[in-house]
What does this fold into?
Amino acid sequence: MVELDNDAIKCMALFESLTNAAVRDCMINDMAVVFLVAKGELGRAIGKKGANITRVRSAFGRQVLVFEDSENIEDFIRSLFGSIPISNINIHDKMDSKTAYVTVAETDRGSAIGRGGERIKVCRTMLQRKFNCDLRLNSK
It folds into this structure.
């Protein structure tokens, strides 16, 4: 279980008031504010024609990333990578550590990593927070 600080709780309350979407987790880093919304709430968080997410971005004055929660680790990983096609997910569970190996096409590798490695850092952190699992990216 991840403990949230006061800033994260305030961000969650503001996000929920602007979007009416239930927030499960919030992470604030140098580049963005990251929200994990309840399963089925992603559309509500984004809003019609992106109206809600636009309002949230202007309220926070920085990049806002929204992912959908799932109790299934593979569905959760697919949510983290959004529209990037994932060809394979292997979960290796050794003793007290768990690692997810995610395979994407070589042409999608740059998108999966993101500018300056920010996307993969966010994905790793969220996967670690939710499932206590490390993330490795492979390409085919």
